Amino acid sequence: MSDDPLARLLQHPALWRGRSAARLPTWPTGFPALDAGLPGGGWPCAGLIELLTPRAGVGELRLLVPVLARLSALMPARWLAWIAPPFEPFAPALAERGIAVERQLVVRTAAPLWAMEQALGSGACEAALAWMPRARPRGLRRLQLATERGRTLGIVFRDSLAAREPSPAVLRLAVVPCGAGVEVSLLKSRGGARGTLCLRFGDNCA
Fold it and tell me: Helix, strand or coil for residue 55?
């Protein structure tokens, strides 16, 4: 790391310089076409991501399977937290896709914002996923700050209509079904690309 104070400042994860933004550590998504459009070439190791869908279960979780499998295998072990999921995570299906079931923490709560903030900021989670259709920008800002404190990846699932609202998330993607995969629109990508990709599970058709 450089001893230059300015160089250190320019590498701070909270600093955004448009397309010349400091490159943050990332995890490959498992989809080369998506990696090519994201800043740093993948999902951020820490930071808040919003996935906007017309309804739950359109393929948004399949999009995350490669990174969840990778994160669940890291040592020392940290949790992957599921906050207020609309369906019960099916352990055999997770295990079949390489996700360590013993590292999953499912939180049933009527206060998902509070639970998500605690999970992200605790330092005990490698990633936390929350279903929060009624989240507001102020609450999302709290979550973004918590990802920085805990050095954690935060993923929030919201309704597609939320695209009309501002967001402090570092990445914002709209996800809809696309044949045997999903169509992903990059709505907000600090230092990355904009546009729409059609990703097939197992390959991509971008």
Answer: coil
- The CATH superfamily assigned to 25-200 is P-loop containing nucleotide triphosphate hydrolases (3.40.50.300)
Angle at 201 between CA 197 and CA 206, to 5 degrees: 25
Structural domain spans, the chain:
25-200
Distance CA 19, CA 152 (A): 23
CB neighbour class for 184 (10 Å; exposed up to 12, middle 13-18, buried from 19): buried
Q: H or E stretch including 35?
A: helix 32-37
Question: Quick check: helix, strand or coil at residue 34?
Answer: helix
Residue 36 burial (CB count, 10 A): 15
pLDDT in tens, 3-33: 555 554 444 445 444 444 456 799 999 999 9
Phi/psi class of residue 42: alpha, beta or left (left: φ > 0; alpha: ψ in -120 to 50)? left
Structure confidence by residue, pLDDT tens digits, 75-117: 999 999 999 999 999 999 999 999 999 999 999 999 999 999 9
* 180: three-class secondary structure by DSSP: coil
Written as six digits, the tokens of 3 are: 């001893």
Cis peptide, bond prior to residue 76, ω within 30 of zero: yes
Tell me the C-alpha distance between 198 and 103, whole Å. 31
Coil, strand or helix at 6: helix
pTM of this prediction? 0.85
